[in-house]
Amino acid sequence: MPSWLQNQFLKAYASKDIQQIKTLNQCWFFYYKKLLND
């Protein structure tokens, strides 16, 4: 996982921002699938 994404996750969890966490999860799965397919 890229460091910029890890930092975003840490901020979202620290502020308990559920919507941000869900969005970051979607970004991560999209990014991860793309990495596997390349």
From TrEMBL:
InterPro entries: CmpA (IPR047764)
Protein name according to UniProt: Cortex morphogenetic protein CmpA
